[in-house]
């Protein structure tokens, strides 16, 4: 209940303070989905600490980097999760990171501090700490797959707005049951509207650790889940699984899909198999959120990634020279606004690259703005293949590949080539009978894809590797193909 969460967060906040965790201290939070995640998050905020929102899939390389950049003094982990021993990882981290003074473990604590001990502290509800609402409440991690993730300071006021305005747009009320299926520390299930939006309106929150259809469908049926957020790779699996799972969702009224491009055909299938209440979400941990709105015509819901959350979001869509392009023309999206950051945490050189002189964040996303203000995301600025003097946009080719009836998911990858510089590899998961490269290229030819923009290599895969939040990880595919 909310009363229990309140009480437990108070006790844990007192326990954290007793350990010496003080206002403004950064704490790496890496707990799997579950009620303990919510207790820990609110306890850290009440103690005045700044949680660094690590994903369960992060390992020593990422956590070491987050610890170094944030100067975190504590780490909160499970004992083991998905067969991985987080305590052993903590041992490694401690050797390199002397600032990291406390390791707190939920479960079997080993040589470390026990989270249940921290939570057993008598609650000392002091006068609420008055944090500066413009100061960082938490640090999110960036979603990019280039290099190590950056830390994103989200302030109390911007993040409260993020969650509550999102809840309003989605029509979330106390009668809703929100399912956290993606890793809870990710911005999407955390605050778009996510866990925080659900708490803001007094809704019920359900956590699953395993978002597979088998486990998620039974949780949805059991708890009467009305709303959840998924990435395309996962929702496509859910849509397929309605064909064979004995229990399928009937209570969903809002199914948010974002994090990567959802193809129009997939959107239609989701509306038909899972719920007519599909919503596309184009968002980023750095801030800007775009939503299709409940009640929008299906053409908008299937074909666009929504329009900005706030009337005060300022969007600039520019060409290579940095000049604004007209509506309907593809360009890079730059954004500034009430809940978009002005800079990463302690990352001067990244900031010089990622923000323009007027403070606009360069998203690296290619978009088209329609006359009605809705956006279509078409790809990433740097996601191009330089093939023998021609530049091929991976996003365009992927859209054509997806349209093939035998293809479930696909990625266009650049591979080094002694003659062309780079050649095009289509990494493909087939749904039906696989096709050959020649057959695929005949199909692309019929669709009007230029010869130089067609794959040189076709690599069938059983599944495409994904990032910690479940997006297709093209860097990992490229590494696998070159290994
Ligand atoms: C969400 O946040 P991040 O920070 O993990 O990733 C942001 C990036 C965007 O810059 C864009 O490249 C991509 O993910 N992206 C999409 C998309 N939504 C995000 N690309 C195409 N279509 C979409 N609908 O991924 C995130 C944060 C809040 C809400 C939803 C997603």
Structure commentary:
The structure is a single chain. By secondary structure, the chain is of the alpha/beta class. The strands form 7 sheets. It has a 7-stranded mixed beta sheet with strand order 11-10-12-13-14-15-16, with helices on both faces. It has a 5-stranded parallel beta sheet with strand order 2-1-3-6-7, with helices on both faces. The longest helix has 18 residues, at 2-19. It is globular, with a radius of gyration of 23 Å. Bound molecules: 5'-O-[(R)-(benzoyloxy)(hydroxy)phosphoryl]adenosine (OOB). The site of 5'-O-[(R)-(benzoyloxy)(hydroxy)phosphoryl]adenosine has 21 residues, from helix 7, strand 14 and strand 19. Residues 142-143, 187-188, 192, 258-261, 280-285, 289, 305, 363, 365, 377, 469 line the site of 5'-O-[(R)-(benzoyloxy)(hydroxy)phosphoryl]adenosine.
Salient structural properties:
single chain, 483 residues, alpha/beta, 7-stranded mixed β-sheet, 5-stranded parallel β-sheet, globular, binds 5'-O-[(R)-(benzoyloxy)(hydroxy)phosphoryl]adenosine
Helix content: 25-40%
Shape: globular
The number of distinct helices, counting runs of at least 4 residues, comes to: 16
From the alpha-carbon coordinates, what is the Rg to the nearest angstrom? Answer: 23 Å
Bound ions, cofactors and other small molecules, one mention each: 5'-O-[(R)-(benzoyloxy)(hydroxy)phosphoryl]adenosine
Q: Span between N and C termini?
A: 50 Å
The average pLDDT score comes to 96
Largest sheet data: 7 strands, mixed
Unreliable segments of 5+ consecutive residues = none
Total strands: the figure is: 25
What structural class do the secondary elements suggest? Answer: alpha/beta
- Percentage beta strand: 25-35%
Order of strands side by side in the largest beta sheet? 11-10-12-13-14-15-16
């Amino acid at each position: 209940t909310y009363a229990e969460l309140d009480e437990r967060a108070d006790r844990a906040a007192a326990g954290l303070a007793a350990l010496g965790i003080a206002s403004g201290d950064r704490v790496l939070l890496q707990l799997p989905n579950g009620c303990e995640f919510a207790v820990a998050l609110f306890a850290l905020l009440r103690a005045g600490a700044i949680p660094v929102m690590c994903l369960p899939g992060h390992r020593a390389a990422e956590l070491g980097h987050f610890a170094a950049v944030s100067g975190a003094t504590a780490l909160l982990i499970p004992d083991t999760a998905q067969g991985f021993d987080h305590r052993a990882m903590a041992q490694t981290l401690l050797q390199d990171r002397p600032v990291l003074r406390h390791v707190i473990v939920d479960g079997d604590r080993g040589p470390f501090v026990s989270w249940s001990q921290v939570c057993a502290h008598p609650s000392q509800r002091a006068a609420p700490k008055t944090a500066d609402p413009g100061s960082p409440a938490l640090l999110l991690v960036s979603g990019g797959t280039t290099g190590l993730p950056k830390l994103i300071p989200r302030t109390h006021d911007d993040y409260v707005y993020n969650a509550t305005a999102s809840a309003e747009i989605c029509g979330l009320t106390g009668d809703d049951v929100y399912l956290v299926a993606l890793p809870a520390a990710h911005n999407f299930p955390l605050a778009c509207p996510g866990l925080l939006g659900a708490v803001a309106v007094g809704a019920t929150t359900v956590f699953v650790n395993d978002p597979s259809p088998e486990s998620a469908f039974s949780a949805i049926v059991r708890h009467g889940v009305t709303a959840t957020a998924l990435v395309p790779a996962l929702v496509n699996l859910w849509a397929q699984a309605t064909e064979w799972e004995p229990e399928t969702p009937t209570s969903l009224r809002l199914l948010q899909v974002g994090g990567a491009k959802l193809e129009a055909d997939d959107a239609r299938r989701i509306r038909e198999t899972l719920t007519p209440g599909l919503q596309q979400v184009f968002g980023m941990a750095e801030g800007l959120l775009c939503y299709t709105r409940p009640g929008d015509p299906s053409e908008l819901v299937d074909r666009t990634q929504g329009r900005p959350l706030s009337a005060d979001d300022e969007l600039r869509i520019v060409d290579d020279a940095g000049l604004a392009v007209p509506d309907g023309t593809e360009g890079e999206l730059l954004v500034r606004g009430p809940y978009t950051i002005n800079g990463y945490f302690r990352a001067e050189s990244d900031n010089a690259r990622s923000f323009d002189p007027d403070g606009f964040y360069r998203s690296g996303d290619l978009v088209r703005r329609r006359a009605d203000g809705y956006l279509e995301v078409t790809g990433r600025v740097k996601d191009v293949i330089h093939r023998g003097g021609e530049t091929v946009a991976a996003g365009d080719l992927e859209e054509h590949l997806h349209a093939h009836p035998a293809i479930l998911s696909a990625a266009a990858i650049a591979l080094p080539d002694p003659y062309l510089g780079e050649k095009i590899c289509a990494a493909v998961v087939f749904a039906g009978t696989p096709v050959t490269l020649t057959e695929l290229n005949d199909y692309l030819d019929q669709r009007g894809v230029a010869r130089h923009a067609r794959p040189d290599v076709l690599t069938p895969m059983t599944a495409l590797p994904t990032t910690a939040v479940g997006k297709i990880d093209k860097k990992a595919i490229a590494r696998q193909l070159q290994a």
